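Annotated sample (chain length 148).
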Amino acid sequence: MNFQKIVKIITGILGVLGIIFLFRVIGAGDEEIKAAAAVGDYSKVSPLISISQFILGIAVIATLIFSLIGLFSDGAKLKKALISAVGFLIVLFIAYSTSEGVETPMKDGEILSASGSRWVGTGIRMFYFLAVIAIGSMLFSGAKKLIK
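Output written by the structure step:
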């Protein structure tokens, strides 16, 4: 049996299980599920959540494996990936060094540490920096095509 047949069989089994669990949830109805959840009984919903987590885990692992295989099989792709990773780390360093942290009281009464506040600022600055870089590269690419 080849790999594709095995994947199709596993996919079919997981699909059928998902449909069965979905019909159990739909058949139970909202009110019954809410009442059961109020007393701590999640037996109708738990199998559906578990199979979803299992499928997500398989998808993430397969994506990582095949991405790494693709990267390491071609030196040019690996070089581009490393250049991109270094560029990302440079932007992260710039965002972190321009952020400042201040202890901040939160709504629930706890206090966000200065380090945590700095990392939040870093994330926000990273978003803005990467958005500007993306928009700039699209404009540059468009202008380059117009010139040609």
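Annotation: The beta strands are 104-105, 111-112.
Annotation: The two ends are 52 Å apart (CA to CA).
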